[in-house]
Design a protein that fits this description.
alpha+beta; single chain; 467 residues
């Protein structure tokens, strides 16, 4: 059963119950009033009959007989009157008997207007009729005169029955109108929820770009906004996972490709050394090649491990480090390569501190310096300095084509693959630098001119360099 159907049914039951109870209370009050009106009427009639009888027999010296009293009431043409004279029935034109009247539980009617304290009433049922009986007792010439006046309540009960039927019809009609109104209101109110349900199914089916159209400022609109926020977060998370998986797949594919060439060469040289007797010079050359390629594979595996570690977004232990120390340590690490290629690494202005993870950031600088040394001409120089809150690594080598700059930080991407492999590169250095800088809230901007050199600029995205 749908929620709106449950709400309509529950509300209808509550409304009908409330109306029914209210109408029942009103009907009982009306019934009581009408019955008391009938009691007052018969009581007044009984009093008037007794008063008329007292006027008729005003002469207290005359001895009146029962026949005289019966004649008096008969002359009044009263078909609803019973007269008792000293508990003896004198006149009775009703369906009740004196015995039934004498055994009735008569209640005293409170004094009101012309009604007196000796006036009473009671209700009884006879031959399927409900009767209201009013009575009064007077003393005439030393004798007790009791007059009963009777009213049939069937007409009153019929009116009450019709009133009850009308009230039930009104309660049913009101409940029906309320049900229809609530169905219409809930249909409109739940329409956004149906849209939300359809959007949820679409997103579950893979349409992550689907969103709920929001209008209004009620709770359902707020739910729609929260749902859109959740859907956007899910989409971003899913996109990030897909991108990460795609990147890892590409990395593994590129790694496999990069490993294939050196492994093939190592295997070939090893087989040659095992199968053939080579001159000492050729044997040392083969062993030297195997050793250099093994070192290259070792560097490649270490960089791949570092890339995978950073890709898992492990929190870094960062603290303030002197920039001069970072520059000096990075230069010392690259000093051997620089001396081998006869290239001078010069450190410029480097005042201040940097909030970073020391080993990682030093590794980034080493990769940049190593990259600059690799593509610089012998007897040239590489500069490492700070300028206007940016860290710059500048070389005067061959430069990078403009169309290649945007892709050079992709893993395993190399502008000149043959030259990169000869110089020991694998296309992972700048990709690793980019990832390290992202974890430090920095970005890498590359400015290069073919034949003139390249500037690698480490730019702070949010927090400026603390100099």
């Amino acid at each position: 059963m749908k929620l709106r159907t449950k709400i309509v049914l529950l509300t209808s039951v509550m409304i009908f119950t409330a109306i029914f109870i209210s109408e029942a209370v009103i009907w009982m009050m009306i019934r009581k009033n009408q019955r008391m009106d009938a009691v007052h009427t018969v009581s007044r009639d009984a009093v008037e009959a007794a008063d008329a009888c007292m006027l008729f027999f005003a002469d207290t010296e005359t001895a009146y007989t029962n026949a005289d009293l019966a004649y008096f009431f008969k002359s009044q043409h009263s078909d609803c009157t019973i007269c008792l004279w000293d508990d003896v029935e004198i006149y009775n034109q009703t369906i009740l008997t004196a015995e039934e009247l004498s055994h009735s539980n008569c209640r005293i009617l409170p004094a009101e207007g012309k009604l007196q304290r000796d006036t009473g009433y009671f209700f009884c049922r006879k031959s399927g009729h409900q009767l209201a009986v009013g009575c009064i007792s007077r003393y005439i010439a030393g004798r007790q005169l009791t007059v009963f006046q009777i009213c049939d309540l069937e007409q009153v009960n019929g009116q009450l029955s019709r009133l009850a039927a009308i009230m039930l019809c009104i309660a049913a009609a009101v409940t029906g109108v309320v049900c229809i109104a609530m169905l219409w209101i809930l249909e409109r109110a739940f329409l956004p929820l149906e849209t939300l349900s359809q959007t949820t199914k679409a997103i579950a089916a893979g349409a992550y770009e689907q969103r709920v159209q929001i209008s209004g400022s009620d709770e359902i609109s707020s739910l729609g906004k929260d749902f859109n926020g959740m859907a956007e977060a899910v989409k971003q998370r899913n996109d990030a996972l897909l991108l990460s998986e795609e990147r890892k797949t590409m990395l593994m594919g590129s790694l496999t490709h990069e490993l294939k060439t050196p492994l093939t060469a190592i295997y070939g040289y090893a087989q040659t050394l095992l199968a053939a007797k080579l001159p000492e010079e050729d044997r040392l050359s083969a062993l030297h090649y195997i050793c250099s390629e093994s070192e290259r594979l070792d560097r490649l595996s270490k960089k791949m491990m570092r890339l995978l570690e950073l890709d898992r977004e492990v929190p870094l232990q960062m603290q303030e480090e002197p920039i001069a120390r970072l520059f000096a340590d990075a230069r010392d690490i690259c000093a051997g390569s620089a001396k081998e290629k006869q290239i001078q690494i010069e450190i410029g202005p480097c005042e201040g501190n940097l909030y970073c993870e020391y080993d990682l950031f030093c590794d980034a600088l080493v990769n940049l310096l190593d990259n600059a040394l690799r593509y610089s001409s012998p007897e040239s120089r590489v500069l490492l300095y700070t300028d206007h809150g940016e860290i710059i690594v500048e070389d005067f080598g061959c430069g990078i084509p403009r169309e290649e700059i945007d892709r050079i930080t992709d893993a395993f991407y190399m502008v000149d693959k043959s030259r990169s492999r000869k110089s020991g590169g694998a296309g992972l250095g700048l990709a690793l630098v980019k990832l390290i800088l992202q974890h430090h809230g920095m970005s890498l901007r590359i400015e290069s001119t073919l034949g003139a050199g390249t500037r690698m600029i480490l730019h702070f995205v949010d927090t400026p360099l603390n100099t």
